[in-house]
Amino acid sequence: MNSFAEIIATIKKYDKIIILRHQNPDPDALGSQAGLATTIRQAFPNKEVLMGGNDTEGLKWLSTAQEVTDADYQDALVIVTDTANQPRIDDQRFDDGAFLIKIDHHPNDDAYGDQLFVDTDASSSSEIIADLIESSSELKLTKEVAYYLYAGIVGDTGRFLYPSTTQHTMEVGGKCIALGVDTAAINNKMNEVSLKQAKLQGFIYDILNIDESGAAYAVIDLDLMKKLDINQEQANSVVSTPGRLKEVQSWMEAIQKDDGTFRMHLRSQGAVINELAKRHDGGGHPLASGATAKDLDEVKQMFEELKEIVKNYNQKGE
Predict the structure, then answer these.
(1) Please, which residues have CB within 8 angstroms of residue 94's CB and are 6 or more apart in sequence?
(2) Are residues 92 and 232 located together in one domain of the fold?
(3) Same domain, 150 and 171
(4) Last residue of a domain, one of 159, 190, 221
(5) pLDDT of residue 197
(6) Alpha-carbon torsion 191, 91, 66, 255, what sign?
(7) What positions does the domain DDH occupy (predicted)?
(8) For the whole model, what pTM was predicted?
(9) Which residues form the domain of 37?
(10) In the chain, which residues have pLDDT < 70?
(11) Which of 94, 122, 170, 216 sits between 20 and 30 A of 130, alpha carbons compared?
């Protein structure tokens, strides 16, 4: 593990910096990426700082990526934020630069990079970027930077409701508010859904399978998405919906991709589910993870595993 001072020293060495994050980015991926890019640009205006990756339509209000060419990677410092493992980096040229840094808050199962800073106690990668800035005499937490980082923190803490929220998280959020960040506007954008997404949120309760243990799962396949006229990105908006039910403790949502496989979203309010995700080509936080199922049979197998995890959790009374 490297120190903030070592990472900042490396940043100062390079004239060209490319900042990446994970595929299908969420607010924390975008917030940590854009927050870091912005603070570096403000502190070192002569450096060229690029943000790579594919845009997410529903989050363009927060941040958009830039075009990054093969030539850009030559002699560049590459920094990857909020991405636990290499296959999930949203540009597989990430290792074509001169030097690679990983900054993340997920379990460090894939310790890639020439330097890395991973803090699994942090609520978000955006919180880590705020701490990196705080440690530096050159980098500054300006209002623009704080906008991105606050959005990332809010996104990964579920508006400060998740167990990952700490006193320090709230202190960082308070600093952003003190700088004049329009927190109401950010929360309103995150709450915003289309009519189609709202209809899906209601429909999810009809297709949700709930076991007596409190484990649950739902499948959103291509036929259903076609019927409701939604895409995979829009389907992701209902991932948290089952957690509102009193009867649900841990759940999975299987969203089918164009190749027929399923992107698995795992969430829990108690039982640890990231080991289950790791067994199925995934990983993540103890209570929020992602995985992949090659077909519906694997989805059902994962649900059987989830039921056992929840039953064991209930029996231990944890």
Answers:
(1) 20, 78, 80, 86, 100
(2) no
(3) yes
(4) 190
(5) 87
(6) negative
(7) 16-153
(8) 0.89
(9) 4-190
(10) 318
(11) 94
